Amino acid sequence: MRVFATGDNAEDLGAAFDASPNAYVLLRPADLTIVAANQAYLDALSVGRDQIVGKPMFETFDSGSGSEAPENVRQVRTSLERARDMRQRDHLATVRFSVLRPGIDGQAVFEERLWSATHTPVLNPDGEVVLLLQHTTDVTDLEASREGQGVQAGSPHIAVGGQVLKRAQQVQESNRRLEAERNRIVEMIMQAPGFMALLTGPEHRFEIVNDAFHRLVGERDIVGKPIREALPELEDQGFFSNLDTVFTTGEPFEGRQSRIQLQTGPNRLMENLYLNFIYQPIRDSSGAVAAILVQGHDVTDSVRAAERQKLMIDELNHRVKNTLATVQSIAVQTARSHQDPATFAEAFQSRILSLSHTHDLLTRSHWEGADLRAILNHETEAHGVARVSLNGPPVALEPAMALSLGMIFHELATNAAKYGALSHADGRVLVDWSVTDQRDRVLHMSWREVGGPPVAEPDRRGFGSRLIQRNVRHDLAGEIDLVYAPTGLTAELTVPLDGRQTG
After folding, report:
1. Cut 0.70: pTM above it
2. Cβ(358)–Cβ(402) under 8 Å?
3. Domain region containing 21
4. Within this chain, do residues 86 and 216 fall inside the same structural domain, yes or no?
5. Whole-number average pLDDT of the chain
6. Cβ atoms of 488 and 421 closer than 8 Å
7. How confident is the model at residue 153 (pLDDT cuts 50, 70, 90)?
8. Domain count of the chain?
């Protein structure tokens, strides 16, 4: 119902409202406060206008203290709220509601009366409910005549009225059972673990939305709004056109792991989610599509877990291939440098153990990387903590870089133990490192051996030096300078930390 007028028209409407022989009262929809009542309403309830206007209806009229009073109040309140929330007229064929009447001794007493009520929402031009109009009729005498209690019970019009009232009460009782069943269904929908919503009409207006759906869309107030207004960010994502197609054709639509960009909370950025859902058309008695039931589940966690698993499997395959290639290279190169099977086995086992140590470190961090100092400790701790000095800041290394540096440190430590500073009781190794240029980080490392036997540059490069050179230049895209000074070997290493490494 839409009623808006200004000027003289407003005065005319006000006069007509008050002069009507039918009992009317206007209520504020939010809290059901009485804002106006006409004279017929005041007379029917034996109250003055100043006694009720501006007061909540159910504080003014409470149906007395009888055992049925709470149920009487509940029925009227539910009908008013249903008219407000559904934006359509709601009827109560009959409802028992006691009202205060002046008693014989002047004391007010509750008198039980039977009422028929119609509740109509008054809408503004934007379709918002601004008032609720209650029209009530006292049908107590009709009920009494139907039961043979009235003095005019035998008159034809009373008999007809009684039969009509009886049928209205039967219809109301059926409607109450349907309403109770509907409430049970709605409650099941509300408590469903998956998201559910009922969209009505060609504009897909939200009529029912369960808790899971509310959480999905960031607890937004969407009930009563068309989907294009309620969730505007879905434009151009295909969901609106699919709903239109389902409404037009009557064919359901199913989405599997469908990507959706959704604002999941106020003032939050758009978030990528993945949904399994179905649009199920609901037909009316004529077979036409009247609504669409949306139901589904948020499967974002499952999709992302599957993506992570695939990445992990791909990464594992990559690592296994790289590791096998490294082992093969170590075996071939070691065999070239050791003709004797015993020395080959010793050198090969030592290098495989070094590779295994670095793998252990990476496994502890779920292959997210390893710290430079931890790798150095692993490769040098067997030679004595006091004999190897490590000095530098924490440096997190990517897995491929950690593996390459682990092999390099192993070769340097093995060489120092066989021929360099660690082969002499007083020898020591000093390892210093730093990181420069924080925008494009570069690792600078110095490996210096002191206190060992005199050192001379070898006549030919062994496998160890070839492995070091290859790993630094090919795998790490860095540079290394090996200086065989008489006082001890010095290795100056420069490696980009944020650059491209192969592996």
Report:
1. no
2. yes
3. 7-138
4. no
5. 81
6. yes
7. very low
8. 3
